[in-house]
Amino acid sequence: MQLVTLDDVRAAAARIASAVVRTPLLPCPWVGNERSAADRGLWLKPENLQPIGAFKMRGAHNAVARLDEDARARGVVAYSSGNHAQAVAHAAAAAGITAHIVMPASTPQVKIDNTRSHGAEVVLVGDDEREAVAYEIVAERGAVLVPPFDHPDVIAGQGTAGLEIVEDLPDVDVVLVPVSGGGLASGIATAVTARRPDAKVIGVEPELASDARESFRAGELVDWPVADRFRTIADGLRSQPSELTFAHLRNRLHDIVTVTEDEIRSAMAALAQKGRLVAEPSGAVSTAAYLFRGDELPAGRTVAVVSGGNVDPALLADVLTARTDEEDRADD
Q: What is the pTM of this model?
């Protein structure tokens, strides 16, 4: 199987430069007293600052930009729990082409509304029906499927975040990146390991959806039922790697660690209250790993990718209220 290369990522970076935000690396002095001095600091890569609030902009715009005129005339289809949906809708609108987006009915309403706001037609289905329905629309309309992770153009686009990390912190030692379908981790690991071979790229998953870690340890894809993966609060991390993304993960990731639901919620609160960043549960897992799984991570200059910030307002309020209550009890 042919893997995405550094040249592919560099070409994607040039292709999407005018469409995406080059997000900065933000130092986190607020975690300085919580980790050993050997760790030498945490930086955040805030992809929640992208126009649609998530890193998915990168892969979607690269994939759409690669379509020929005939494909553009037929439009695009995507299936997603939310962030890829918004990204494809945004890229399609920018290119002036039609988009049909298939989303689980359980998707947070904020992500559904945002997808529709870009002019896409949204089709809501059951949690385990989105991919099948997307292929039905492709067959009916002759449209082009833009998958959420299982495509070289999508992986290369996501990898542009990794290029930026190494450009901004050339001596980075550790990069923590969320893993679900594996497109972001595949792309970032491709760019980082090519530019900084000594750096360790480590995937992070919720314990309740840790199929990728089990597969990584087993050396082969291990299937988890949809119902099991949908237990996690991190709705953007409920997919499973494909053969393509798993090949990248096996070859380029150093390890995959997991975090609990409570740790995810605590990281969301810390990012909001101390880092001044709004992160959805999926976007907070990398920070959670740094804060709570330090004994499983290499020491050194660490970047945690905050992959998205499209959180349901009620959930964010609940997380922040719970954190405040915990702090009040600790002070008593």
A: 0.91
Count helices and strands in the chain by DSSP H and E runs: 14, 10
Among the options 56, 242, 266, 286, which is catalytic?
56
Give catalytic status of residue 307 as yes or no: yes
3-class SS of residue 303: strand
Fill in the DSSP letter of residue 104: E
Q: Which of 62, 52, 126 is nearest to 89 (CA)?
A: 52
Specify the range with the lowest mean pLDDT, choosing from 13-17, 122-126, 153-157: 122-126
Q: Which residue has the tokens 């292929």?
A: 135
Cα–Cα distance for residue pair 176/286, rounded to 1 Å: 5
> For residue 38, is pLDDT > 50?
no
User: The tokens of 68 are what?
Assistant: 């020929």
Rounded CA separation 214/146 (Å): 27
pLDDT at 328: 52
Torsion of CA 304, 248, 196, 153, to 10 degrees: -80
Beta strands in 120-186 (DSSP E): 121-125, 144-145, 174-178
Whether 322 and 330 have beta carbons less than 8 Å apart is answered as no
Q: Is 56 a residue of the active site?
A: yes
The answer to whether 84 touches 64, Cβ cutoff 8 Å, is no
